[in-house]
Amino acid sequence: MEKKFKRTTVTSALPYANGPVHIGHLAGVYVPADIYVRYLRLKKEDVLFIGGSDEHGVPITIRAKKEGVTPQDIVDRYHTLIRDSFKEFGISFDVYGRTSSKIHHDTASDFFRKLYDKNEFIEKTSMQYYDEEAHTFLADRYITGECPRCHAEGAYGDQCEKCGSTLSPTELINPKSAISGSQPVMKETKHWYLPLDKHESWLRQWILEDHKEWRPNVYGQCKSWLDMGLQPRAVSRDLDWGIPVPVEGADGKVLYVWFDAPIGYISNTKELLPDSWEKWWKDPETRLIHFIGKDNIVFHCIVFPAMLKAEGSYILPDNVPANEFLNLEGDKISTSRNWAVWLHEYLQDFPGKQDVLRYVLTANAPETKDNDFTWKDFQARNNNELVAVYGNFVNRAMVLTNKYFDGKVPACGELNDYDRDTLKEFADVKAEVEKLLNVFKFRDAQKEAMNLARIGNKYLADTEPWKLAKTDMNRVATILNISLQLVANLAIAFEPFLPFSSEKLRHMLNMESFEWEQLGRTDLLSEGHQLNKPELLFEKIEDETIQAQVDKLLATKKANEEANYKANPIKPTIAFEEFEKLDIRVGTVLECEVVPKMKKLLKFKIADGLENRTIVSGIAQHYKPEELIGKQVLFIANLAPRQFKNGLVSEGMILSAENFDGSLAVTSVLKEVKPGSEVK
């Protein structure tokens, strides 16, 4: 039998305050969490939504060093940007705190100290890379080298960004310190570890037996870790940015970010509710739900529960509905490569269109497998679903009521079979959407809500009240009453998913009361109820707007290719005599034209100092003919003639250099020489 809880604590993963939030974060964590919280609030349930910035860890110190500022400067900047972006996007946190706050430092220190005093940690010494020039131990991200898998340069000590392999620092070929550039040495250091192996037995029972209802991706990853056998995990590290380890002999050591960050959920609750926070974390009648991405599953399902259990007074999570990853235009989202759609930029580029992105990200939610975001799909879902279905139905129902009944809800007369069939179709929508939301199937729940709009759109299109207006106004009144009741239901059904549009729609309907319990009713708007002026709920997004976003990504891709350019390996060595066989000369372009019906080819007439010759070259996509006339180019003079299908014969080859992006640059000489001059 399902347990009934008095209240729900909902947490969402704390984003690193070393950069802005992107659509991958939104789709994986924040939009589904916000949908769920808004749904519970609509049901008048007691719920607390906890968020905040993760402001410790190596990525923050790396960015600070790169920019020549302090870590505090970095977290202050990005905490503000992230918090404000979330607020503008409608992520409705009850509190959005930060792990650099005093209350968090105190809470995390006390938590560590309690476990330390209970002998829940073990002390271990290990060998770790040390930078002798900078006089510091190196975190994994501060060590770079050649990847042992794909042999890409610049792989980090924990991961290769090129091939995605998880690494350890000792696997890198020719490791270097990212601080000084010197080769690090191995040095002994002492740290505290949480012995996860000690917790393995109860974790196995709690997850694999007691929580079989968890998502397959979450359950499967946990099972894999448990089956491999859990190992002690360090809770401290050598770093100067973070929460100092609160024991003697721990100078220069801070709490590992994975240990300190989840405690942020607790400290942020304390910040909001200093006198009553404990009931949200320690009362068995509280349900704890963690919304996270798949890279955080182990921390929230195994490590954090082990910490809470070791402390002894906290509840454990009841569910962890982690999502997989969202890709962008077929490629993995990457902060370091700037391959992302950033939330703050989206809000600038698409003002007032928060709900469009919320809708598309939910429709493509990576709930059980990785999914892909494309700008073309974004446009199609807006234009073909939000505008053409939902918005169109609402607009027609409102405009027709305004036209025929002065904006007042008309009376509902006698129903015919089609009316009854339509009402029957949407009568069960509340139960269906509720069933899906209760098991965190947000994508299907939104689809069900949109089906309600499709029912309404079809009903209006089939009944054609605008044609009946000349002969049967009673029938028109009934049709529009039913349509408006459907519209009012949409305002409730879409509230968790599209809060801005629902608020706008409720204003148009002049609808003050809206609760989840009302969903499915056909008397939400009483006869004679005055509606406000209709407005467009959504607007079409044009091709040029989408192309601008695609172009921005293409520019990013080109910049990444340029930054990561590495010349191809040198070809096998040849004898000088082989090279001498090539007769490379300088020619002057006398004429140049595009070859008809062969758009890649340019036909050249070249002055070669003997007899003029014709050369055909596949560079039409890189040059206009007029750009090359009069220029001197290098060509191979003794290449066997080549005949094309159209009968054209090429008497040589113009030499070009291929750039990193595939573009070609014709080779020339630094000063003018006589046509036919040999290259030696």
TrEMBL record:
Domain TRNA-binding residues, every copy: 578-680
CDD domains: Anticodon_Ia_Met, MetRS_core, tRNA_bind_EcMetRS_like
Record: residues binding Zn(2+): C147, C150, C160, C163
Cofactor: Zn(2+)
A Pfam family per the record: Anticodon_3
A GO cellular component entry from the record: cytosol
Renumbered ranges of motif 'KMSKS' region: 332-336
Residues spanned by motif 'HIGH' region: 15-25
Chief subcellular location: cytoplasm
SUPFAM superfamilies per the UniProt record, alphabetical: Anticodon-binding domain of a subclass of class I aminoacyl-tRNA synthetases, Methionyl-tRNA synthetase (MetRS), Zn-domain, Nucleic acid-binding proteins, Nucleotidylyl transferase
MF terms in GO: ATP binding; metal ion binding; methionine-tRNA ligase activity; tRNA binding
Matches recorded under InterPro entries: aa-tRNA-synth_I_CS, Anticodon_Met, Met-tRNA-synth_bsu_C, Met-tRNA_ligase_1, Met-tRNA_synth, Methionyl/Leucyl_tRNA_Synth, MetRS_core, MetRS_Zn
Catalytic reaction(s) noted: tRNA(Met) + L-methionine + ATP = L-methionyl-tRNA(Met) + AMP + diphosphate
Binding site for ATP: T335
Top-level taxon of the source organism: Bacteria
Keywords in alphabetical order: Aminoacyl-tRNA synthetase, ATP-binding, Cytoplasm, Ligase, Metal-binding, Nucleotide-binding, Protein biosynthesis, RNA-binding, tRNA-binding, Zinc
Localization per record: Cytoplasm
EC numbers, comma separated: 6.1.1.10
Protein family: Belongs to the class-I aminoacyl-tRNA synthetase family. MetG type 1 subfamily.
Function description: Is required not only for elongation of protein synthesis but also for the initiation of all mRNA translation through initiator tRNA(fMet) aminoacylation.
Name of the molecule in the record: Methionine--tRNA ligase
